[in-house]
């Protein structure tokens, strides 16, 4: 789980608050991130498909681009509708805001289909080049927010790409881009697939239904099915593929067992990282789910080893973010459907409104660590008394008040 860093020496604090905090999410870039004016971001494109709606954010925005964010996509899948198979050249993390369904991935070298049943609160990991699809098997819409991150595994540089195996690509712009089969020679496909021309034309043809389609008839692919394993496939699994074939790709973040912090008066924080979802060790990502009750406060804290991309699920909150120069780079209200980035090392605090607040945060480290200024194991309680007294010119009573007056934390309420 995410670590609430307990001890912080003065030298470490100095390192954390160096004048410049450089972007670590894009290892191939040596340009420092100048994030002096953060803003809330909303979707720029709204694409209606036969079976749902896709909303996308403009990731060329400096805040997203600088932190290595290659995609932010919200998908609404209607009941009995299917998100058609696609893959990307970047890491992708999905969070299920609402609904239930079935999703699948196709991992090279694995004889079995990788099929999972998802529900509200699940986080699902996708690796570059691995096809992904999802089906809504419930009676209400499935709503999911997905964030993609560009890293050194992406050999196409800073350009995020989605490759569609069916349908047409209209997510990034309003121009019609075809699926990957469309560009291949028809005769060649007939030979390698051993099918007739009519079938090839169907998989190559333009599809006006969009990327989410209504399923006709009964959808039977709702459980893991095992296909016959050949000797070659068995040898592949035994020689290194087996680990990838047995990886778990999803974990529920809102179950009680996943609480990292809990205050019955203020709220709760849950985490999914490489400890409870080992595949995140490969993706170098983790997630946090924050719920603040009415007027609850997430006290000032900063991430030691990762950036945060926060999506607001419900409610609203007052948020303040401070940079290494002690300047407030964001101070305002965030509401449902908005995205806000919080760079590594920047201090952030949140206070919920009268309706409460819920958000999912995607973190660019598989084992993220954060430092809190408030609480029993906070930074202020970990620094020696003499250091605090001389740093802030406090008398002994004032030092004691600073260290021990707040008995709650890091989640508090007044």
Please give a structural write-up.
With 414 residues, the chain is of the alpha+beta class. It contains 9 helices and 26 strands. Helix 3 (186-193) packs across helix 4. The radius of gyration is 23 Å and the shape is elongated.
Structural class: alpha+beta
Number of helices: 9
Which CATH top level class of the largest domain fits?
Mainly Beta
Count of individual domains = 2
Using the CA coordinates, give the radius of gyration. Answer: 23 Å
- Gross CATH architecture of the largest domain: Sandwich
Helix content, binned percent = 10-25%
Which runs of at least 5 residues are low in confidence (pLDDT < 50)? 1-30, 224-231, 236-241
Give the full name of the CATH homologous superfamily of the largest domain. Answer: Jelly Rolls
Instruction: Classify the fold: give the CATH topology of the largest domain.
Output: Jelly Rolls
Mean pLDDT equals 83
Question: In percent, how much strand structure appears in the residues?
Answer: 35-45%
Measured between the Cα atoms of the first and last residue, the distance is 28 Å
